[in-house]
Amino acid sequence: MTAVLGDPAPAGLLDAFWAYERALMANDLEQLDRLFADRPDTLRGDAAGLLVGHEQIRRFRGGRGGARLRTVLDVHVRVLGAEHALVVAVTELERGGRGQQTQVWQRGADGWQVTAAHVTVPAAAHDARIWRVVGDPLVRPTGAGPLDGLDVAVKDLFAVAGQPVGAGNPTWLGHAPVETTHAWAVRTLLGAGAAVRGIARTDEFAYSLAGANAHHGSPPNPRAPGRISGGSSSGSASAVSLGHAAIGLGTDTGGSIRVPAAYQGLFGIRTTHGAIPTAGVLPLAPTFDTVGWLTREASLLARVGDVLLPEVAPRPVREIVVVPELLALAEPDVAEAVGAFAASVDATTESWDLAHLESWREAFRVHQAAQAWAAHGPWLRTRLDSLGPDVRARFEAAAEITSAQAVAAAIGVASAGRTIRRLVGDRVVVLPSASSVAPLLAEDVSAVRDATMRLTCLAGLGGLPAVTVPRATEEGLPCGVGLVAGPGRDRDLLGFVRDREERLRR
Amino acid sequence: MTAVLGDPAPAGLLDAFWAYERALMANDLEQLDRLFADRPDTLRGDAAGLLVGHEQIRRFRGGRGGARLRTVLDVHVRVLGAEHALVVAVTELERGGRGQQTQVWQRGADGWQVTAAHVTVPAAAHDARIWRVVGDPLVRPTGAGPLDGLDVAVKDLFAVAGQPVGAGNPTWLGHAPVETTHAWAVRTLLGAGAAVRGIARTDEFAYSLAGANAHHGSPPNPRAPGRISGGSSSGSASAVSLGHAAIGLGTDTGGSIRVPAAYQGLFGIRTTHGAIPTAGVLPLAPTFDTVGWLTREASLLARVGDVLLPEVAPRPVREIVVVPELLALAEPDVAEAVGAFAASVDATTESWDLAHLESWREAFRVHQAAQAWAAHGPWLRTRLDSLGPDVRARFEAAAEITSAQAVAAAIGVASAGRTIRRLVGDRVVVLPSASSVAPLLAEDVSAVRDATMRLTCLAGLGGLPAVTVPRATEEGLPCGVGLVAGPGRDRDLLGFVRDREERLRR
């Protein structure tokens, strides 16, 4: 029994309200579209964000596969002049909990129609797009130190004692043993006073830059709603963006820290290859795999480095260069933001011959793929069905690589690495962290992946540290400035960025 | 920079909007009250529920200690006739994530005022009022069986391997070791195909019936918003109410399953004392402590019993009695619902002499307290400060019990138990599960606790099984019908309730 409260309802309003409710429960898209005003300023908001215009709302409805089953408990009616009325409904969901639906209705030639709606449903136990397991905390600190009171979102590739490693794939998780010791990086963070907040989602086997896990969905990108999170350290990045955790621990093989940092407006570091032990981390391509992390502030990015990175003699950043040919690899809005950053740090402009870039990227791709198949092929061979289409296609291509191709790629990687390390020298190179802002959720990201890999493969090939500094495009979307230095100069980069951002905030 | 979109704003509207925003950020309660229309039908809703009337909204604001810091990104204005306007704001929270605020403004003698508002903020990583740790799942099943595909919210008194036992008290949690084996009940459920969804909040050391944990707040009561959850198996109950988990595993010493079941409209069972091993469960008062569980359906309540309870020869329920003197111990609305249930099962009315009830309850209280202090006094003695005021007062009183008092209480308990077991005999007794519906969050619950203990202590003293069947008062609030039987008749009770509820649903 629904209680109808408030003002006496104008003629036809409650009929329209109930017609909408029935259409919602039946997922009758035509009727739902009819009952929402066909205007560019019709609004519909929920926890995922505000949709503006009938067309956006129509597309959202078409894609969601129906609303949750519910009962309407109370309806509050408020007459707002001759043409408008407010209807606030308290709902009870079949799966449990209560929600609220606020609607502004307008009477027009087509009868009563909704021109604005705001919907709340009960929150889930946890945000399963971001977290596989989360706690308050999941693992307590084992020591005290510079990270006291901070918590870490651990990418689901790192061993956390008491939990299996899930690698973003439910079938793998189903077979994975419960770990008995923490990965080196996890153990070290716990010893420095940090707690493990939880285990964060990853793209399957970290073999993607999108974050759009086929099983768990794309973690939200709160700074750019409606756009992908970036991956593969996607859950760690979204957890930090949303304030669920202070530190997002992840890995970066071909951009898996730098890309989500750029897409979500976070600071991030991919460390020098080999600088941080990968013990207890599921490999993707060991010659490229590195440990990295994401934060909302440059000072904390550096503080985590103080804990995880080997101590080396500091070498202050003296010369910064910007390479127009690298800027040109990004979309104009991103290139502009990166160029502005370079100007602000008085970077020297330097021209690079990138004639071999395409072959470098291809060598990176093939060497990565050959290693990925070596690492996971024996297990995946009979379980390719368990993968989402993108990652599956990538592993299937990896399976086809011949040993001759793999050897040629390894040689190409070694040579490209030497060239890149020589080009960077003892300077810091400013370049785009990703080729574009975060693509829209519906977009095909394969072209974006190729364009971004052209940029991210450089640090990968050189084994170099790369820090992402968040900036915004003119349109206001997050984008990433990348700073790359010679091997082992992680702390130099972190200190430079920390000092610079602190000066900017003063 | 805030973008203002939509219709041109009427004079004064945006000034009022920004005045409200400034007042919200400053927690200027007077100004906020002024800008909300002083009417009995003013509305304000969020994920916690819908508040109706200026007074309710004022009280809510007075109690919350300010809104989260935020920036307004976009404002959408819609003119609704001469007197009304809609303002939808997209906000960005300082801690991360975006929210939405929908407001209907009305122009009156006092200028523009809000007459309806709906607010969304980003969901937390997990609902920390309900869960200490939660996962997808936290612990995988170890076998297959009748509980395949179901998940369990485990009260934070049970050992879960890989996690410490928190007992609802952060200081205890800080000292607790990581468990290496599961409690018997957890292990048995996992073996039957269930997964552990997570570790659910409890009142501190289970020494309360309220659910209002001083450190983590009161878990929501979705069936009775604004009212307490009931405890001490509070998190398990709310998790089941909200559909976070199918099964809520808990304990019942003096009502800790029956009371939250009654308050939240769930099925629940407190088992015969000793029927289910308490190995791996933190004790409160071992002579009364029992394992129990909560579900949304009677059939699942029974199915869990098939897994956890010892197999005994079934003895069908033949005679059901209802005792007017017990009904009279409840509030009239609850007594009426319980009486109606008794009539529907053709219960025989029987009069009991309850002259000793007060002394029974007191013997229960003292015997429980003496055991609670024996169990936790050595640790708590120097840590009473770590407890919330209610539980602290109870432990402090427990510390004062002399050994003579404890012995006298134990003797009283034994004698009362014999009497109660004799009174129940081989019948089933219908009585209120709790003396009232769930008290309002702000209410002082000490009188309610005493009244409910008068009812719940009976099964406790007798070591008897008690099932709660959810019903509603005439006002529509959840209340619990209790069914108590002789020792060991848990399966008889579960089967009776399952069959009866299934008949009702046909």
Which key terms come to mind for this protein?
Nuclear Transport Factor 2, Chain: A; 35% helix; 506 residues; eleven-stranded mixed sheet; homodimer; alpha/beta; Amidase signature (AS) enzymes; seven-stranded mixed sheet
The percent range for strand residues of chain A is: 15-25%
**CATH homologous superfamily designation of the largest domain in chain A:** Amidase signature (AS) domain
| Net shape of chain A | globular
Q: Quote the CATH topology of the largest domain in chain A.
A: Amidase signature (AS) enzymes
Low-pLDDT stretches of chain A:
none
Rg value of chain A: 25 Å
Largest sheet of chain A: 11 strands, mixed
**Class by SSE composition of chain A:** alpha/beta
Mean pLDDT of chain A: 97
Helices of chain A, by number, come to 15
Q: Largest interface, and how many residues on either side?
A: A-B, 71 and 71 residues
